[in-house]
Amino acid sequence: MTPITVVEGRRVPLSNLDKVLYPATGTTKGEVLHYYAATAAEFLLAHLRDRPLSFLRYPDGPDGQLFFTKNPPPGTPSWVHTAPVPHHEKEQARQVVVQDLASLMWAANLVVEFHTPQWRAEAPGTADRMVFDLDPGAPATVVECCTVALWLRERLAADGLEAYGKTSGSKGLHLLVPVEPTASERVSAYAKTLAVEAEKELPDLVVHRMRRSLRPGKVFVDFSQNAAAKTTATPYTLRARAEPAVSAPVTWAEIEACRRPGALVFLAGAMAERLDRYGDLLAPLTEPDRGRPIPDTP
């Protein structure tokens, strides 16, 4: 029988709590749910709130089947909030919007990575943040990503924009920038301009095109996640990797000091102490009126 827990007055089934999801560390599903409930909930919810959720599910762990969906999964409780979103294939499509702890635990029980767009449900396609996904092509690592991140920080600052960093939870780094609400197409165009500029300034280190043959030894500055249809791993989500790595916010001092590939890897078990020390390093992204206007692109 699936155990039922009550979260904020809602009955939430929590299944297979002893199942090992991350064999490399022996981390069970129960430990994953504990991370979300006891460690990450307050901070994760702030970044999920009002944003349509896409699910990357891995119910048998990262070595099992992975599948990505934007539609509410079968059996979604009636009390889980959903919102209409513009999908090309369905005019009346809806997606889950996680607004509270009960909904978070229901979603976490499905074993998911949480992915969200750069816009909120009440304003589809109007971005209030910009993202750069810095993805290293071997033998480049997160060390090279940090060098590129520092260049982008200074370039963004020259345009009056402030960047915040987090690990991807995989090999790379994400830069997030609060912006004045702006059409996603315009944000994408500006982000592409900076990616192209980064390649010109750092030709031995940066590539802005996705072609795999161009990427060995360089950092791919992926600006495409600013498109309205794209999503990015939400801060504090666990990733479907060999270990329970978190997409964790990092300080600029940590980025500046990064000298080895494993320097910016944070597992679920380390996050409570880290949150006690820093709080939410990405809190400015959730503050109203924090975004600054992006300049016009040529």
From TrEMBL:
EC number: 6.5.1.1
UniProt KW keywords: Ligase
Domain (DNA ligase D polymerase): residue spans on this chain: 28-281
Organism: Streptomyces poriferorum
Protein name, per record: Non-homologous end-joining DNA ligase
GO molecular function: DNA ligase (ATP) activity
Lineage: Bacteria, Bacillati, Actinomycetota, Actinomycetes, Kitasatosporales
